[in-house]
């Protein structure tokens, strides 16, 4: 048996399992802090599975489909569950809290669209689902503060609007740069370098909410002229 061809799929499975465990820690263990780290771990697995597949020359349609299935769980359902739990902490039993799960459907639509879009070879069109997840990690961490400052009802409305905005961004045609390795000179990668600096500074200063700030910076940097795109 050729073990080499299974290595990327094992990494993808790590992505999926981390996402599943994030949901379990959110809903049943009452540890959203651990769930956040598990979603970050999913993102690490997701970053490396495609890279390893290309390096080993073992990319396959099955691997691509498996990756999308894992991403729906880890970067759609898991972060939506985090936000849902936070909103339930402010106003338990409010049926509108379930509205945040709309983002899961759009994450699935974004991934299906990506799998059939030949234009995204070096960057992205629309917000990648891992970026969606990172935004919601920070947003989920900020729910208690928002609840204290603007109240439960205003917080719910804010998060439902954010759900709609992020959902539409995922299926939009907005060109967004990626961190895929290439032979371009470093001077052409200044948006990536700026984003790294912003990410480090934001997370050090703001903690988990820095993840949301980083994704906002990613969106703003992507409004500048960019080349066309690859992986969701």
What percent of the residues sit in helical stretches (DSSP H or I)?
55-70%
- Uncertain segments are 227-232
- How much of the sequence is in beta strands? under 5%
What structural class should be given to the helix and strand makeup? mainly alpha
Shape descriptor = globular
Residue-averaged pLDDT, rounded?
86
H-E string: HHHHEHHEHH
What is the tally of beta strands? Answer: 2
Query: Based on the structure, what is the oligomeric state of the protein chains?
Result: single chain
Main sheet characteristics = 2 strands, antiparallel
Our measurement of the CA-to-CA distance between the termini, rounded to an integer number of angstroms, reads: 30 Å
Question: Which value, in Å, is the CA radius of gyration?
Answer: 18 Å
Q: Please tally the helical runs, counting DSSP H or I stretches of 4 or more residues.
A: 8
Arrangement of strands in the largest sheet:
1-2
């Amino acid at each position: 048996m050729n073990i080499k061809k299974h290595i990327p799929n094992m990494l993808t499975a790590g992505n999926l399992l981390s996402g599943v465990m994030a949901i379990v820690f959110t809903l049943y263990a009452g540890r959203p802090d651990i769930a956040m780290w598990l979603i970050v771990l999913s993102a690490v697995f997701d970053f490396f599975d495609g890279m390893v597949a290309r390096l080993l020359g073992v990319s396959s349609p099955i691997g691509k489909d498996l990756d999308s299935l894992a991403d729906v769980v880890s970067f759609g359902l898991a972060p939506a569950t985090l936000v849902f739990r936070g909103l339930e902490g402010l106003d338990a039993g409010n049926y509108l809290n379930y509205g945040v799960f709309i983002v899961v459907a759009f994450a699935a639509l974004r991934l299906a669209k990506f799998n059939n879009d030949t234009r995204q070879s070096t960057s992205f069109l629309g917000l990648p689902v891992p970026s969606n997840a990172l935004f919601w990690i920070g947003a989920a961490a900020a729910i208690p503060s928002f609840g204290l400052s603007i109240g439960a009802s205003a917080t719910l409305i804010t998060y439902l609007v954010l759900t709609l905005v992020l959902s539409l961004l995922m299926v939009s045609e907005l060109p967004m740069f990626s961190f895929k390795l290439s032979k371009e000179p470093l001077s052409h990668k200044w948006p990536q370098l700026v984003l790294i600096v912003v990410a480090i500074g934001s997370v050090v200063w703001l903690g988990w909410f820095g993840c949301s700030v980083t994704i906002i910076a990613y969106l703003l940097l992507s409004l500048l002229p960019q080349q066309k795109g690859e992986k969701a």
